[in-house]
Fold this protein.
Amino acid sequence: MSLDSYEGADAVDVERLVKRYRGAPDNAVDSISFRVGVGEVFALLGPNGAGNTTTISILTTTLAPTSGSVRIVGVDARRDPAAVRRQIGIIFQNPSLDMNLSGEENIRLHAILYGLYPYRPTYRMMPGDYRHHISQIAAMLGMESDLFRPVRKLSGGMRRKLEIIRGLMHRPRVLFLDEPTTGLDAASRRSLWAYLAEVRQRHETTIVLTTHYLEEAEAADRILILNHGQVAAQETPDQVRAQLGGEALEIDADDRAVLRRELVRLNLRFDENGRFLIYLDGRSAYELVRLLTTPLTVMRTRQASLEDVYLRILASE
């Protein structure tokens, strides 16, 4: 079928997706549904074992679902996985490079397998478009001098960058990133996201990622938080904060053990991350402070961050 017939479809459409591994007592992914629009950045969040990597594996056709439906740019992933693979790019959490080849040879092999260019035995014999494209991405990620070194001699961060270059070579319509910036320093993470923003704007590339860096999720158009294979929250970062976080009271005391016991005795739900954070949930800060007898050294109200909300969701399960 022509992809022209899929115009107007969501980039990703997941309905009641279930995955249960053989012998497992519970579903790894438990009837989740979500959609991702064309050109969106969509972040899957959750602790280890929440089902994020399993979900990404099903969406990229490397794992079969137990039940439910997955459509990528309108293509049924179970009926036509080959057509899906031609439209997606994948950056796996675990390395998938050939250590015996150079970085450029890994990329060239990928480009040839995708039918982007005819086979040529050396970099210099490849078309100018290939050489220009690869050097452009390498410069953006600061890899120009390392591109022709054997992969086994590259650092973990450099290998990560190389996988990103390879995954973008065929200009995929949907780019799946499983913990894409793991092993990268702050400067490299920033340059990577600057490049991805450029790719997204120029080609309307849809980005679906899993990440443990919540500042990356803050920049997403929408987020989905998974816990124990189920959807715990799903909306824009601002909406998730407003619905599940809202305003909070941040307090602390010299005697933190006494304050902690008092909060427990008063049956006040709180997070402890350096200081104590109590969600107001419609109550006033004055009302809560009046209940406390422990002398406070810090007392202020603030809007809950995405990290606050994320930790609250995980603690409530």
Notes: The chain has two domains: 3-235, 240-316.
